[in-house]
Amino acid sequence: MDLVVQLHSHLPWVLGHGDWPHGSDWLSEATLETYLPLIEQLRTLGDEGVAAPVTLGITPILANQLGHASFRGILEKYAAQRAAAHEEQAALFEQRGETDLAWVARWHGQQLERLRALWTEIDGDILGAFKGFADAGRIELTSSAATHAFLPMLGRDESIRFQLRLGFAEHRRIFGVNPVGCWLPECAYRPAGWWEPLHHAPHRGMRHGTEQDVLDAGFRYVTLDAPLVAGRDKRHRRPPYRAYGIRSDDGSGALRALVRDPRTAAQVWSADGGYPGDGAYLEFHKQHWPGGLKLWRVTARNADLGDKLPYWPEVAEAKVREHAGHFATLLGAIAREQHPWGTTLITAPFDTELFGHWWFEGPQFLGQLYRELRHHPQLRPTTGSWHLIDNPDAPVIPVDPGSWGAHSDWSTWVGAPVAYMWRRLWPLEDRFWQLVPRALGDERAHVALAQAARTFVLAQSSDWPFIVTMGQAADYGAHRFHSHCADLDRLLDALSTALEAGGSFETANAIAAELATRDDPFPDVLPHLAAALA
């Protein structure tokens, strides 16, 4: 039975929007705590001759940040500050006689220095390192919609086409190959049918399904949550242990769907029984200031922050080996259980940032898992596209609307706390797409139009409603959404005025230049605007 471990890497655009707590520090944390440790693990496994064919998704908006000219200096400044904080606070702990905490602080400092050395060795090129693994045939890289927009809620098909075609093209520009897999943002899908997600939504009416736009953009497979494919007959649920073809309007199933396995997901994601909550692992929420140092272990799932004990790395390492072995055994048991039914695939998708950022020991766990899998011959680790090449036939099924969010529905991104975002965004969609044909036809408008397109897709990021709904940084999510919408309104006003008057584009270009100082992803957007209109 094949095993596909999918890692979905994504952060919204944060460059140019401050540093702490949700600006560039967010990107630097993910790089030091997740992306570099993952590169380190893949290198080590390669040296050991252990196959680790991860299917690694990198969203275009994240890739544009990791490859941005400013990021190297930002990361190196952040890492130096972290290193100084570890040393300074270790000395203070020693003065106070807190030798356990001093030791942990210095241990973290040593781990940081190792990762800084790796950063230097790869010349700060995170994307190049992952590309090297993919070019060598060791992993698969997949893409997504340009800014991780929640596609089922976008009011115009042009917006969906633009997000997907720009995402496909950016992957080709950055990694030099066309992506096969598309991570649907939030695993969100909408079948063909009547569209009216909110009362009196504009453009309500019949629309085609998400799969058509994904296929038209050039992708060949996506990943969905199990309830979306299970079917509505509770007596005969479709199993998640195979790929399916998503039935289109014409009855074909050209777009394949891998399906998240709920049992393996719960083993990692569950707040109650998942591995990351084990008492031996590093506690995420308790931090020492200044420096934001994490020096304690979980201790117990129900322990108050004041009762947390100092971290013991060697105990955590032993627990990693135990949990990796347990996970491999669980996977083997599923393979044996499913064998009589002829099912062929276990898909285990996770947010990449879970491994290292949220769960400090996560990258070690992944490395140890692939070592353990060598002892389970009934399992074959592979990538999403390799599995589909080896298993070209798939039952074609209708897929229900939903996501991998709470209740497997859209509520996280369209519920009462964030419904206003869509009522703000839908008129902007109309205004933008009504202006695009005229602006494309006037070369003088192209600079301002390109920046308007960037601002347009930044406003569509699914992160803004997610952050507001979850409540942990609601003010930030709302501010980012409103600021991008206001920027777009201002730029469209100037563009419209220039186009209607047939005069100077000086004002529009000045606004575009101002916005580009902080929001400058996607260097070549105009061709994809034209394609989205077709």
Please explain how this structure is put together.
The protein has 534 residues and is α/β, with parallel strands linked by helices. The protein contains 19 helices and twelve strands. The chain has helices spanning 24-48, 60-66, 71-95, 99-121, 126-135, 157-175, 210-217, 226-229, 262-269, 313-338, 362-373, 384-390, 411-414, 419-440, 446-459, 463-470, 474-501, 506-516, 526-533; strands at residues 2-9, 55-58, 140-144, 182-183, 193-195, 205-207, 221-224, 244-246, 256-259, 345-351, 380-382, 396-397. The strands form three sheets. Strands 1, 2, 3, 4, 10 and 11 form a six-stranded parallel beta sheet that branches. Helix 6 (157-175) links the parallel strand 3 and strand 4. Helix 1 crosses helix 4 (99-121) and helix 16 packs antiparallel against helix 17 (474-501). The model has no long low-confidence stretch (mean pLDDT 96).
**Share of helix, binned:** 40-55%
Quickly count the helices: 19
Mean pLDDT: 96
Cα distance, first to last residue?
42 Å
Could you give the count of β-strands?
A: 12
Instruction: Please indicate the percent range of residues in DSSP E strands (runs of 2 or more).
Output: 5-15%
SS-based class: alpha/beta
Rg from alpha-carbon coordinates:
24 Å
Which spans of ≥5 residues are poorly predicted at pLDDT below 50? none
Q: What shape does the CA trace take? A: globular
The profile of the biggest β sheet is:
6 strands, parallel
